[in-house]
What we know:
Elements: H1 4-7, E1 14-16, E2 24-30, H2 36-39, E3 43-48, H3 75-84, E4 96-100, E5 104-109, H4 144-152, E6 157-162, H5 180-191, E7 199-202, H6 212-220, E8 227-231, H7 257-272, E9 276-282, H8 294-307, E10 314-317, H9 326-335, E11 338-343, H10 350-356, E12 364-369, H11 377-384, H12 395-410, E13 414-419, H13 421-424, H14 427-444
Parallel strand pairs: 6-7, 6-13, 7-8, 8-9, 9-10, 10-11, 11-12, 12-13
Antiparallel strand pairs: 1-2, 2-3, 3-5, 4-5
Helix pairs in contact: 4-14, 6-7, 8-9, 12-14
Amino acid sequence: MIPAAHQRLTKNHRFVAGDLNPPILTVVGGVQPECSESLGRPVYELLFSEFLKETPELSLRRIPLLEIHEVDLDSALLEEAFRLAHVGVVLDAENLDIHADEDSVLIVDRGSASPPDMDLQLGLFPDDTPVATGAPVGPAPVPDSLRRVAEGLSRSVRLGTSSWSFPGWDGLVYDRAASQNRLARHGLGAYAMHPLLRTVGLDRTYYRSIDEETYRRYAEAVPRDFRFLVKADRLLTSPTDPDRFGARGVNPHFLDPRRAVDEVLTPMLEGLTSKVGPILFQFPPIPPNLIGGVRRFHDRLYRFLDALPDGPTYAVELRTPEFLNDEYATLLQATGAAHCYTVHPAMAPLEKQKEVVSPFYQPTLVIRWMLRAGLKYQVAKERYQPFDRIVDEDPTSRDAIARTVLDALIAERQVFVIANNKAEGSAPLSLFRLAERVTHWTTDAP
């Protein structure tokens, strides 16, 4: 396990870790002081590159450990991270608890000190209310008023959040306080029982593709009518290598349809089967001259989309306003792909997007309500957590999204709206208010 010398490291002890996949900047080692008594074993944290936030800065930063949720990680990758960080750790996968989000990875070495049947996530953080070991996570009671909203909302409209493992949703989505780890493992079924949450965004697949069996487990946890909006691997949408920081070379997998089929579409379609929703290709901010100009980007995007197999709904999300023009709208229509209307400071306003790409001509309406104007991701995260209430109400965006949804319903299109906690402070509450707005306008229509 972790040598005793390294158990004495403080949480401020930093090491440069070098170029890894995913890009890791720092290893932070040591027993976290605030949990040392209850845990009594070493904790290590890896901080990812700021490039994952699609910003040019390479600032090192920490995130609250409460915001970490589980993803699958390669033990060989972790061993390489520690080797480059000059931390003499011998990894034993069977004795590690690994939790992560797009910012960092938390590694807890259970070793031989773990008591039998101990859930290490329980009591690990002071603000985490303990839950009895083995207790299920159930759906929160739905107020009658909200249930009536769900009954009045067209079944063509699917609302959902970016991921589901947020402890602050106790009472909104879940019936009890639960750790993020427990929600990541067991919360999806309870989430999917809410009458207004009939889709969810799988964001982890943007950073690392997952296998067919993992998709299958997701599908088994939700009702027959539930659908997943899946983010495709960023290796398909970044022209430079996203797994490096500093001077990054050309990414050979950029807009590679064969890789899309082999690494993304095949395991996803076989695992999720009928529960597949839109497949989202999210492009980071790209300087047009980096790829030969706007027309060159459109040419490559057209060839990529045209080469994908028929069947699924493919959606494209841009973070470069220069790419949003009539040529872009034409190539989407020619390939049958959808534009993902995104509310994000990096992109043109929603009304401008609608001017260029009409919702009436979309095969499926896909909207992502991501980040409030004027805020950066980390600032919004710190301002809004634990994401249990609306902090900065944004009625302008809500009304614009509601009008767009109504446009799609008039055109008899399926609708997917994904909300992020960083839009207003609490994604479920943002969606509940959006549903109220849509049903109110639908009811009042002549």
